[in-house]
Write a structure and sequence with these properties.
Blueprint lengths: L2 H14 L2 H14 L12 H25 L3 H4 L1 H11 L4 H14 L11 H13 L4 H18 L5
Amino acid sequence: MTLTTLLNLTASLLAQRAYPERTLRIQEAFRSYHADPKDSAFSSVGNLLLILGIILAVLVVAARIVRQNNQPVAARKPRRFFSYMLKQLGATYTDRLLMHQAAHHAQLAQPAMMLLSPELFQRYALNWADQLRLRFFRQRVRARFETIAARAFAPAP
């Protein structure tokens, strides 16, 4: 026997079965099925509210992430932006650490604001340097800060 013969034989055997009988049994199964209310995920208002609450929480978290990603770098990471600006001014790693200490002491949310005007730089950075205890260290830090200020507030060429 060849494969074609076997397939034809199988098809004819399947066709001989009572098609209406099978259809009636399937229809009867659908008619007689009654779902138990316990089987449904939305059987109670509590379950529905729980699912809606989870969906709402996910949407709130997603909205916050999108809103945060739309902010400029200076608003999202002010200290990193401050370091970047100091690096652009040629400040060494030690100078940047000292400037961060001055910004921390002044409790500035946006430390880069010190670089906007000489008055702000004087108020926050140089005044912090003047409060250091060791005279040698105070003079050295003040000299470094004045170098940064000279670069930051130099007239444009």
